């Protein structure tokens, strides 16, 4: 009897993850650009909106994405001391990239950047180009061998 429940739970998790690919892209991008050199980062993500030199070894890059199509319906339920919003999605993301000695050392997302199901989904387009370039590079050797 336990097996059908696990299968149902697995199907439910798969369905939820399929509905929030932007969250997956944002998280995967954060992981994949760690250690990348700054020149490569700029070539796949574009020039940062702002930069700030922190010290001789450290620079911050700020990438910004304003998401005009927030989509969905947003319902706010009034509660004493504020409210709870259901539906809709965030509208902007600031990706702060810390470069140390010419390489990406950290990536943090800030702003109103959650989509309806996942966290930080509005940030996905910022580094999507980097993910695509890495995927092309992985496929290239296997395509040459064919």
From TrEMBL:
Keywords: Signal. It comes from Reyranella soli. Residues 1-22 form the signal peptide. This is Lipoprotein.
């Amino acid at each position: 009897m336990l097996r059908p429940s696990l299968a149902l739970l697995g199907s439910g998790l798969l369905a939820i993850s399929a509905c929030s690919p932007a969250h997956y892209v944002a998280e995967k991008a954060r992981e994949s650009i760690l250690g990348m050199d700054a020149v490569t980062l700029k070539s796949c993500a574009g020039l940062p909106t702002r930069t700030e030199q922190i010290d001789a070894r450290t620079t911050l890059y700020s990438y910004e994405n304003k998401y005009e199509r927030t989509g969905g319906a947003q319902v706010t339920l009034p509660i004493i001391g504020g409210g709870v919003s259901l539906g809709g999605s965030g509208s902007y993301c600031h990706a702060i990239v810390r470069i140390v000695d010419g390489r990406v050392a950290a990536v943090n997302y800030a702003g109103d950047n959650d989509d309806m199901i996942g966290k930080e989904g509005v940030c996905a387009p910022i580094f999507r180009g980097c993910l695509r370039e890495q995927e092309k590079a992985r496929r290239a050797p296997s395509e040459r061998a064919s």
